[in-house]
Design brief:
heterodimer; A: 5 helices; B: about 170 residues; mainly alpha; Helicase, Ruva Protein, domain 3; flat
């Protein structure tokens, strides 16, 4: 009995230590997204094609050059992408970690794991085009979010961010910060296998 | 004018000049306002700032959206302003924000099963601590005096007793 009593402080210490150790392992900058399992927010955005922003979407920023004469680059909306699994990669040419993760995005596109759409967040079209020319363009389409509105709808708070959206337009996955090989291998690839499974 | 008066005047002027020089840096922020409020309506601006100070900036997590200079905070402040100007309520704005960023954006998260410990944990710990203290003190009071050892002078290894150990109870 006396021995048990003496062990109480040790037990309390152990409990506190376990909780603190768990806290050390957490990343406080990773905010759980309320969007997971919910429909992706609606959007209709112009696309970036060779330095010009084409298609008039909901974004009405005055500093973007609009060129509706080209047949490519219609405004793209959430509805256009229903029926296929796709990845949304939020990036900007001013964002250093985007540069860091870019080879992985290129790799995903080259292995044809999933069509990757870019969301060019609060960027200048010319700088964005230059960036893609320099580092390679892995994107099936680049949506232009000049004023960051669609970014807010997606709950973006730190570029780069990556989402995976399923055939029904439901957000299934979100990663904040630069992608790394571990996340791609352990989270994205298994998820894509499940989502792309027939039936 | 008496010469002494003149000396006093000179002193007073020097002191005043020194005071102005010293106070200038402190006054500067009040004079140089960083950014004019985006809305000329002080009532609206007041509501925007009050609501924004309840929202956490997600880029710099220990700042409010009202206080932060981060780009996203500015955008979200504009969003709050726009929604309030359109006549939407504070609750509408809060719902808009939590739909996108989750309860994390709220400095005062709602009470629900996952946040009960957060809300009431400290009170429970306080009551438990006070209860424990009361119990220990009561038990100690009940112990007979003879359960404690007498205060004894402590002998050094060579058998001598230090003077301050002989002074009795302090």
């Amino acid at each position: 009995m006396k021995l048990l009593r003496a062990l109480i402080p040790l037990a309390l210490f152990a409990a506190v230590a376990v909780f603190l150790a768990m806290g050390l392992g957490l990343n406080p900058s990773e905010v759980p997204s309320p969007l997971i399992g919910k429909p992706a927010p609606a959007f209709a955005l112009p696309q970036l094609v060779d330095g010009t922003v084409t298609g008039t979407g909901t974004s009405t920023s005055s500093n973007t050059t609009t060129n509706t004469s080209t047949s490519t680059g219609q405004p793209l909306s959430r509805e256009d992408l229903l029926g296929k699994v796709w990845m949304l990669n939020v990036w900007a040419s001013w964002c250093a970690p985007c540069r860091e993760e870019h080879p992985l995005v290129v790799d995903i596109a080259q292995r044809k794991l999933v069509p990757v759409y870019g969301l060019n967040y609060k960027d200048a079209p010319a700088a964005a085009t230059q960036w893609l020319r320099q580092l390679g363009n892995p994107y099936t389409g680049v949506l232009v979010d000049a004023d960051g509105r669609v970014g807010i709808d997606f709950g973006v708070y730190g570029v780069p961010e990556t989402f995976i959206i399923d055939r029904q337009g439901i957000v299934r996955f979100k990663h904040v910060g630069p992608l790394n090989a571990g996340v791609v291998r352990d989270k994205i690839e298994p998820l894509l296998r499940t989502l792309n499974a027939p039936g | 004018m008496h010469p002494a008066d003149r000396t006093f005047h000179r002193w007073a002027l020097t002191l005043l000049a020194a005071w102005v020089l010293l106070m200038a840096p402190a006054l500067a922020p009040a004079l140089a306002r960083e950014a004019a409020p985006a809305s000329a309506d002080p009532v609206l601006e007041n509501r925007v700032m009050r609501l924004s100070s309840e929202l956490r900036c997600l880029v710099c997590q220990n700042e409010t959206i009202a206080a932060s200079h981060a780009d996203l905070a500015v955008d979200l402040r504009n969003q709050v302003r726009e929604m309030l100007r359109e006549g939407q309520s504070e609750a509408d704005v809060t719902r808009y924000m939590t739909e996108r960023y989750g309860d994390f954006i709220l400095y005062r998260p709602p009470v629900k099963s996952t946040t009960v410990v957060l809300w009431y944990g400290p009170a429970v710990l306080l009551v438990a601590g006070l209860g424990g203290l009361w119990w220990i003190l009561r038990r100690r009071n009940r112990l007979a005096a003879d359960q404690f050892d007498d205060d004894e002078p402590v002998a050094a290894p060579d058998g001598s007793v230090r003077a301050d150990d002989l002074q009795g109870p302090r």
